[in-house]
Every structure is written in structure tokens, then in C-alpha cells.
């Protein structure tokens, strides 16, 4: 780089990524009035890397100041006091904000004029309940980012299963899979029934760093899930996976072996719980003897029912691996026996038998 009259020669200056302006403060408006059990709100309070307390107290370097509004954690008096920031966001008085939706979205059109499926506060003028759909229609277009928390919000979940009367769906089904927020982001889906606490907080922190201007958008897969969290299967991270390879399968739920034949869908389900655990790295379905029923998947629950039955492909896949697994298990058993013996020169006799040969010395 050359210097001329105290200024840099632009032609020879190294290229740099263009800095993007970020926000110093952002609001999170969390609505859990979708068809749900509020389990996702409860679950994310168990996060520790980081904890929600660290987030709202500003203890994470580089993040904007976060104003969180969630009914489970709200110190408000409830009612209109709790609804105040949501109404302010409608009026354009709060920006930027991240809209988090918990619970599946019912189809209000099928009962238009004949009641409602779920509501969030009342219309101040008429006193009539305001539906979840009403709020989403007005807040989502104004939101800097939109996050769906839990399988109900991402793909419909339990309430959207076959035969339901509500016409429930996931948030992307409702807003459209090509929806883009004010921040230029698609909907960010974090599935789980409920969400794994660290998965949600890690994703939220990434979105917040992006809002601060210090990180790129979070990479999402074709189902709008964070790629780094849902890019591998349960089976790939499961402590029991080696038993599958050796065709050593559990026949009951007290066994430490692979549980495919007793109903586990782990080989085809995108989820990192076996590797991450549930709280503080502890727990997680297969880690504690539970089968994977596919609760993070778009096809849940219909595609995985009846629970506890061997998956349709389980019989064929376990049959195919059986001769290979039996042979490998036998060969490994032989090798294990060999390497479990100490070398023959480990003895207290007056002669050295280790094979030591000093021929290289002058």
C-alpha cells in the first residue's frame, strides 16, 4: 500500500467486507397463544448456554439490549398491561422487534363468523376476542425477524394431525414459505416438542448477532431449520448407534442396545438431542432409554404413528445388517480377547524377553 499526502491509495488498499449497521436495542414479542401447551416457553427457561437471564441482563458481549415480552416470564400485571408493547408494535411505536410464535396456527377461515379457535387479548372498541391470526397478519409484516418456536409453530405438530377439526398448520404454511421479514430473513424454524433449550437460545443469539450487524444470517435448510443443529440424524449422534451396526438390537426398553426394533425412528430423524442432551448436556430421549418418535420432523406425528411399533423400514434394514453385524461382532470379539491380554514379556524373570535389540549402538 502506498501513502500519498497522508491519504491511502485506494487502488492498492486490501479489500474488506463492507460493514453493516446494526441495532443497539431490539424487542422480542413472544406470542404463545397458538394451539399449544406453552411447553416451549417453559423449556427455553432451562437453557444455560446462554441462559435467558444472561440475554435480558445484557451479559453477552456484542448483542443489542434485549427487551423480552413472554407471558411465562412477564413481571407485568397481565391483561392490558401485558398487551401494551404488542399494541405499541401495531402502531409502529416499537421497532425493530423479533416476533416469536409458539403453537400451531388454526385455520380461522373455516369457521369465519362462527367463533374462534384461539385468541390473544380483546378489541378495545368492541370487546371481542382478537384471534392469533389477526395478530400474525399485522405483526409479521412489521417484524425485523420471525421465529417459530417448537414443532407446533414450525410444522403444525400434534394439533395438525389427521382428523383434526382446526385445520392447524405451521407458521410458514400460514405466511407462505417464501415469506421474508423486514430484516430480509425467512421464517426461522426451531422445531422440537418441546424445543431443546440450547437449540433455541443458540439460534436466537445468532439472529441477535445478525441484528447487531456482527454476524451473517443464520444458515437454514430447505425446511427453514438451522443447518448446524438439524443437519444430522439422531442415529448419527446416538450412543446406541454402534449396536445397530453390529445388529445387536434391544427387545425391551430396559436394554442399553439399539432400540430400532422397539419403535425408535432415530436413523431417519433430524435432531441433535442425543449429542447435546437436554439440560446441561444431560438427558435426551435415547440417552435415557426413550425411543425417538420424530418430534422435530415436519411429518410428526402422523408419519411416526403408531408410536412404540417398529418403523416400517426397520424390519428390512435390520434383516440386511444382521449377517454383516453378526460377522463383525464375532471378529471384534476375537480381537477384543487378544488385546485384553498383556504382552508375554511382562514378567519378573531374570531374562529380558521384550525383543529389545541394541544392535544399532556403535
TrEMBL record:
Pfam families: NiFe_hyd_SSU_C, Oxidored_q6. Residues 230-307 form the Cytochrome-c3 hydrogenase C-terminal domain. [3Fe-4S] cluster binds at residues 292, 295. SUPFAM superfamilies: HydA/Nqo6-like (SSF56770). GO terms for biological process: anaerobic respiration. GO terms for cellular component: [Ni-Fe] hydrogenase complex; cell envelope; ferredoxin hydrogenase complex; membrane. Its cofactor is [4Fe-4S] cluster. InterPro entries: Cytochrome-c3_hydrogenase_C, NADH_UbQ_OxRdtase-like_20kDa, NiFe-Hase_small_C_sf, NiFe_Hase_small_N_sf, NiFe_hydrogenase_ssu. It is found in: Cell envelope. The keyword Zinc does not apply. [4Fe-4S] cluster 1 binds at residues 37, 152, 193. This is Hydrogenase expression protein HypE. It comes from Streptomyces aurantiogriseus.
Amino acid at each position: 500500500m502506498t501513502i500519498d499526502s497522508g491519504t491511502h491509495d485506494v487502488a492498492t488498499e486490501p479489500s474488506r467486507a463492507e460493514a453493516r449497521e446494526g441495532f443497539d436495542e431490539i424487542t422480542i414479542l413472544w406470542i404463545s397463544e397458538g394451539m399449544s401447551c406453552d411447553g416451549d416457553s417453559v423449556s427455553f427457561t432451562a437453557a444455560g448456554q446462554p441462559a435467558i437471564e444472561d440475554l435480558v441482563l445484557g451479559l453477552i458481549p456484542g448483542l443489542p439490549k434485549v427487551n423480552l415480552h413472554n407471558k411465562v416470564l412477564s413481571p407485568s400485571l397481565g391483561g392490558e398491561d401485558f398487551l401494551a408493547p404488542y399494541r405499541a408494535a401495531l402502531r409502529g411505536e416499537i421497532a425493530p422487534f423479533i416476533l416469536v410464535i409458539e403453537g400451531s396456527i388454526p385455520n380461522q377461515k373455516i369457521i369465519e363468523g362462527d367463533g374462534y379457535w384461539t385468541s390473544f387479548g380483546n378489541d378495545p372498541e368492541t370487546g371481542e376476542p382478537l384471534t392469533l391470526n389477526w395478530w400474525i397478519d399485522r405483526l409479521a409484516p412489521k417484524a425485523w425477524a420471525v421465529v417459530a418456536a417448537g414443532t407446533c409453530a414450525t410444522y403444525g405438530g400434534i394439533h395438525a394431525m389427521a382428523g383434526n377439526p382446526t385445520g392447524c398448520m405451521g407458521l410458514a404454511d400460514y405466511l407462505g414459505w417464501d415469506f421474508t421479514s423486514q430484516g430480509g430473513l425467512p421464517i426461522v424454524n426451531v422445531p422440537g416438542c418441546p424445543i431443546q433449550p440450547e437449540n433455541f437460545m443458540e439460534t436466537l443469539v445468532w439472529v441477535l448477532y445478525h441484528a447487531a450487524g456482527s454476524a451473517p444470517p443464520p444458515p437454514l435448510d430447505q425446511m427453514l431449520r438451522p443447518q448446524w443443529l438439524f443437519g444430522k440424524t439422531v442415529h448419527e449422534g446416538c450412543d446406541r448407534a454402534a449396536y445397530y451396526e453390529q445388529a445387536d438390537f434391544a427387545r425391551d426398553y430396559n436394554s442399553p442396545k439399539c432400540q430400532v426394533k422397539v419403535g425408535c425412528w432415530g436413523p431417519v430423524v433430524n435432531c441433535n438431542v442425543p449429542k447435546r442432551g437436554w439440560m446441561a448436556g444431560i438427558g435426551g430421549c435415547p440417552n435415557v432409554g426413550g425411543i425417538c418418535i420424530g418430534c422435530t420432523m415436519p411429518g410428526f406425528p402422523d408419519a411416526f404413528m403408531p408410536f412404540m411399533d417398529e418403523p416400517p423400514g426397520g424390519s428390512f434394514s435390520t434383516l440386511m445388517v444382521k449377517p454383516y453385524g453378526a460377522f463383525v461382532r464375532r471378529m471384534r470379539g476375537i480381537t477384543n480377547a487378544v488385546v485384553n491380554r498383556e504382552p508375554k514379556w511382562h514378567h519378573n524373570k531374570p531374562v529380558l524377553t521384550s525383543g529389545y535389540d541394541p544392535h544399532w549402538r556403535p
